[in-house]
């Protein structure tokens, strides 16, 4: 019997692709450098940014210094626009996200989150309209681990005080999360309500998993 639902965050509960993007290309443009120059350090630091070894602010300063384009004005512009873009994502939720979370809580189930994220995303998640619904939140930046490492899943299960087979895992399928959840004994389903083919989203439809076309369809998996 399902006792808890564990969600991925990005492209599952929220999406980047319903609001203006502020990724590498846009940050590079504001820095006045090519995207290729920006990505040299940005890509090299992805794991360090995901596991709490470097903050977003650290990396932006490093990129600007390395490209001889640092100024306080440019630095502040990029920082402010990045945080604004991350917050904007929470203003474009699928209309069934909050009703789904509310129904799960009304059914007496716990809600957990496991997300690969950076420092700026960690801050915005904790300030978001979604955060009060969560019983347990395991963010890679705070845990020093990224999916698909099984340890971050084990930590979440332990904190929820449930067995893997008592959990439903819902994610868009990036970072091999669904495969890991299934291997651990969870019921794993793929959230496809935000899926936009042809974008930079990390995963397309995975035929090995049941597809949830809308958030409220998740409720059927709890019966």
* Proportion of helical residues: 40-55%
Low-confidence stretches: none
* Elements, N to C (H/E): EHHHHHHEHEHHEHEE
Task: Label the overall shape.
Answer: elongated
Structure description:
It is a single chain. The protein has 223 residues and is of the alpha/beta class. It has ten helices and six strands. Strands 3-2-1-4-5-6 form a six-stranded parallel sheet, with helices on both faces. Strand 4, helix 10 and strand 5 form a beta-alpha-beta unit. It is elongated. The N and C termini lie close together (8 Å). The model has no long low-confidence stretch (mean pLDDT 96).
Question: What features would you highlight for this structure?
Answer:
six-stranded parallel β-sheet; 10 helices; 6 strands; 12% strand
Topology:
Layout: E1 4-7, H1 24-31, H2 35-44, H3 46-50, H4 56-66, H5 72-89, H6 97-106, E2 110-115, H7 119-126, E3 136-139, H8 140-143, H9 150-160, E4 167-171, H10 177-184, E5 187-191, E6 210-212
Parallel strand pairs: 1-2, 1-4, 2-3, 4-5, 5-6
Helix pairs in contact: 1-2, 2-4, 5-7
Quick structural summary:
The chain is α/β, with parallel strands linked by helices and 223 residues long.
